[in-house]
Batch of 3 targets.
Target 1
Amino acid sequence: MAGSAWRVAARQLPLRLTVGAFFLNSALSKRDADQATAQRLQQFACATYPFLGKLDAQKFTRVLSTGEMVVAAALLVPVIPATVAGAALTVFSCGTLGIYLHTPGMRQEGSLRPTEQGTGLAKDVWLLGVGISLIAEGVTGHRGPATTDLGPWHRMLRR
């Protein structure tokens, strides 16, 4: 692996490991959910995404768990490009943020600020930020230390 590839991997490592471990833990905890837990998870998701009600609650929970495992694998397996891992994380977090935005009681009235009940889903905005950051790094092909060169803005800022 070339020196710049090692720098990129090292820069992404904290994000990918922490978020990947979080997703893997969440997936494993849902994998063998009992019927009551599966029904509760499905009902919560169906409030925003009614089409999910067509699935059996146990099947829904297994699909959700599998989706989380896929995201975890994309983040934890270093040969998967940042763009792919970031896209998987971004799509998943957009889904959970959709639930946050559309479920009554998750946000304070007339605000994006979470209620106590909404804090668990509101934190997914961080996951969205991590996903977008990984996509941006993968797309731009950033391969070195951050630069302070401001290009055309430099002249304007010197004035």
Note: The longest helix spans residues 3-31.
Target 2
Amino acid sequence: MPPTPGTPDTPATPATPDSKPSVLFVCVHNAGRSQMAAAWLTHLAGDRIEVRSAGSAPGHAVNPAAVRAMAEVGIDISAEAPKVLTADAVRGSDVCVTMGCGDTCPVFPGKRYLDWQLDDPAGQGVDAVRPIRDEIKALVQNLIAELAPEPQAPPGT
């Protein structure tokens, strides 16, 4: 029986020198939570992790309050656009993080699924989006520590 979204199918595998883990962030409109998560992951992990985001019913534009909230921390997502969720995007990712998209995310054996319970920033002002942005940052930092921790300098260097 395939795993259900929100339950890990397999433990995350840290990156090896010749591989790079990939993460797909999914929310309904790909206009707020998943865009902020993808931006945080790109900003904090650099090129150590491949990042994707998509929506089960993509909106027309990224939430302006999310754009403003991310700009406040020096991350520009104003040029991003919502993208449609495809089976290929899920298939090509090691970890699929859902954020309120319910059962619309395709489930493939061997993939790891996480479901982050976050408030929806849709229709909210920037004051309401800031705590969501900060919660996403903490979750992303934990994911990076698991998937692609910073290389440690050898002792004595």
Note: The helical segments are 33-45, 64-71, 87-91, 126-147.
Target 3
Amino acid sequence: MARTPKTKEAVAETAKEIVAVATPAIDDAKLSVAKVKEQASALGSEAIDSARKAATQGKDMAAEALGEISKLAESAASVVDERVGTQYGDYARKAASTVSNAATTLQNKDVDDIVADTTAFVRKRPAIAIGAVAAIGLFVVSMFRGSAKKSSDDTGA
């Protein structure tokens, strides 16, 4: 029975040594985890800012393009008046006005508002959203095919 207290003392002493060795390692690990979290948060913030800037630039470019399309449609309206009739010229002017209004609305909206509106639309009408995405995808693919075909024609391939 005399060994039991010595064994308990030895176990307690060993536990103290383990704690003494492990405590700095645990503290270092906690510090490392905190640094990694901080860096990840900073990178996440940078990514969000970068994405927001890119989306804002894209929005501005799209609004500018719509404005140009509106101007083209407005100038084409007078030609349509002369060649086809004023009734059809009025249609062109209405289309130009609608496109111009869309450009103004797009320019004045914040990217976050556009995302929120888009999200709400997709939730309310998912079939229309899927159809629109598919149509846009087909349009983009056909543009790439056309540009690839044109570049291969230009190189003489």
Note: The radius of gyration is 33 Å.
